[in-house]
Amino acid sequence: MTNTLIISDIQIKERTAIHDNIDPKLIYPDIKMAQDMYIAKTCGTALFEKLQSIVDNGTQNDAENVHYKRLLDEYIPDALMYYVLSELVISVSYQLSNKGVMRKQSENTEIPSKSELDSLSSMYKNRAEFYDERLKLYLIEWAPTRFPEYLNPGNKADTIFPDTTSFTMPVYLGDDECNPYCNKGGFTAKPYTE
User: Fold this and answer.
1) What is the CA 118 to chain-centroid distance, rounded?
2) Residue 22: CA atoms inside 13 Å, Cβ hemisphere, count?
3) Which residues 6+ apart lie within 8 Å of 14 measured at CB?
4) Given a cut of 70, is residue 114 above it in pLDDT?
5) CA-to-CA distance for 28 and 26, rounded, in angstroms?
């Protein structure tokens, strides 16, 4: 993976609640981290690297990249922006300096508590997961004809295979005796009867 950013700080500022006065150098690390941790996991290594290459080379508008452009314009930015916001809530609130970790404060503002920051971060992450789910469903539907890289992410030791699930919440449904839909940890369909 390269250091090519799929979205810019300007796009985030235009489309979210981030103020224009936030220094871009505070945003860039979270963009890079969010796209590497979340978008690369959604797309898989080969597709993610293809998208970075298209952005890096400025070939989004080339005829052969029309389907990738749609991903870059309509599906990835919303998920990525909210993943970035979920991380920025904490990273912008605390700064590292030669005196240690410091929390920014001005005389005309009230500083939210850590639990309020966590709640805000969680809200943004929920939004990101919503858009990420849309991205995944689009990729699953169109991968065979438009995005072959999604189906063939690579075979190196550091290859990231696409994650086809978004929302993760472990739910225990009980064993076979308690739940007829559960089959030793895997789900089975209940036979249809009239």
Assistant:
1) 18
2) 21
3) none
4) yes
5) 6
Residue 55 CB-density burial (10 A; 0-12 exposed, 13-18 middle, 19+ buried): middle
Residue 123 backbone dihedrals phi, psi, to 5 degrees: -60, -45
pTM greater than 0.70: yes
Helix, strand, coil percent values for the chain (each to nearest 5)? 55, 5, 40
Whether the predicted pLDDT of 189 surpasses 50: no
* CA distances from residue 127 to 14, 84, 86, 150 in whole angstroms, order as listed: 17, 11, 9, 23
**Cβ contact 150:163 at 8 Å:** no
In the DSSP assignment, the letter for residue 187 is: E
Collect all residues with Cβ–Cβ distance below 8 Å to 135 and sequence separation of at least 6.
42, 71, 75, 76, 79
Cβ contact 75:1 at 8 Å: no
What region, left, alpha or beta, does residue 138 occupy, with left being phi > 0 and alpha being psi -120 to 50 degrees? alpha
Distance (Å, rounded) from C-alpha 165 to C-alpha 161?
A: 12
Rounded to whole angstroms, the Cα distance separating 71 from 65 reads 10
Least confident stretch, 15-29, 51-65, 84-98, 111-125: 84-98
What are the distances in angstroms from CA 140 to CA 74, 132, 191? 16, 12, 27
Q: Which token pair is 138?
A: 């689009």
